[in-house]
From TrEMBL:
Keyword entries, A-Z: Methyltransferase, S-adenosyl-L-methionine, Transferase
Primary role: Methylates the class 1 translation termination release factors RF1/PrfA and RF2/PrfB on the glutamine residue of the universally conserved GGQ motif.
Protein name (database record): Release factor glutamine methyltransferase
Keyword match NADP: no
Binding site for S-adenosyl-L-methionine: G128, T129, G130, S131, G132, D151, N204
Domain Methyltransferase: 119-259
Lineage: Bacteria, Pseudomonadati, Bacteroidota, Flavobacteriia, Flavobacteriales
GO biological process, one term: methylation
Gene Ontology MF: a single term: peptide chain release factor N(5)-glutamine methyltransferase activity
Binding site for substrate: N204, P205, P206, Y207
Amino acid sequence: MFVKEFKNIFKKDLLPFYDEQEIDSFFFLTLENLHQMKRLDLALQPNFYIEKNEIQQWEQVVEELKVYKPIQYILGATEFCGLPFLVNENVLIPRPETEELVELIVKDCELLPYTLAPNSKLKILDIGTGSGCIPIALKKFLPNAEVFAIDISDKALEVAKKNAIANQVTINFIQADILKVYDLQNFSTPNFPLSTSFDIIVSNPPYVRMLEKTEISPNVLEYEPHLALFVEDNDALLFYRKIANLAKNSLKPNGKLYFEINQYLGKETLALVESYGFKNCELHKDIYGNDRMIKCNI
Ligand SMILES: C[S@@+](CC[C@H](N)C(=O)[O-])C[C@H]1O[C@@H](n2cnc3c(N)ncnc32)[C@H](O)[C@@H]1O
């Protein structure tokens, strides 16, 4: 079937579920993933033909979209900071707000070579790495950095390791429950000694309170890992307290701590890092105007 003809069927099938703009974006994402064709390629090849056996794959996509499965999980792929990432239901789908966090760190690091001792490598730790989007993008943009990443979930780490290979970067991945780590500098797992201090610690930890559950869209609730989203006992700042405390003792003298935060708790999270003695604490908004990032110095 010619792609133009097929696009009309795709649209008609999904119109009861999504608006036209969303359907358009699903169509082009699927085209890119199943046929490696971008929007512009399609304009150049309007008579591109979708074979019978390929139509089955498209039909599968449509069926899953009808039950509101996120397109990234259906295709098993997404983009973060312009890089390709594999995703499945064991990892959070990387968000555009997190790209802004990476951008903020990379911009700051452009100034860092001047503050680093000669021949010393920038050391970065990401806590709660999920798909590995933060450490992989940072390593890609700061190739001289030595990057470490922790997650509690073995299944998430499997995905993160595949992403590091796909993006041709080396990251030191560590499986650990950060809430049970008491000293990052002398912390080690059976196969990985982490006896180092860091220039940068970054984290986008779980921060959604159960009481905010009703505000989360149903497809996020149904398909994204709750381990990545929710904190226990409605204690939204649980991970921030723990990580600020650990970072205090394991950042180098010029070290920086970066957090992605719960948009409703900007002031509270800022007060928290200040209470741990961090300096130059700044609250940053995301492109939607919500309080989203914190940056501070040891
Ligand atoms: C909000 S997600 C962030 C994922 C990724 N960094 C991103 O920005 O897309 C939080 C991550 O923290 C991990 N996590 C949850 N509890 C943890 C714990 N106690 N120790 C370490 N990691 C944890 C989850 O498995 C999840 O991957």
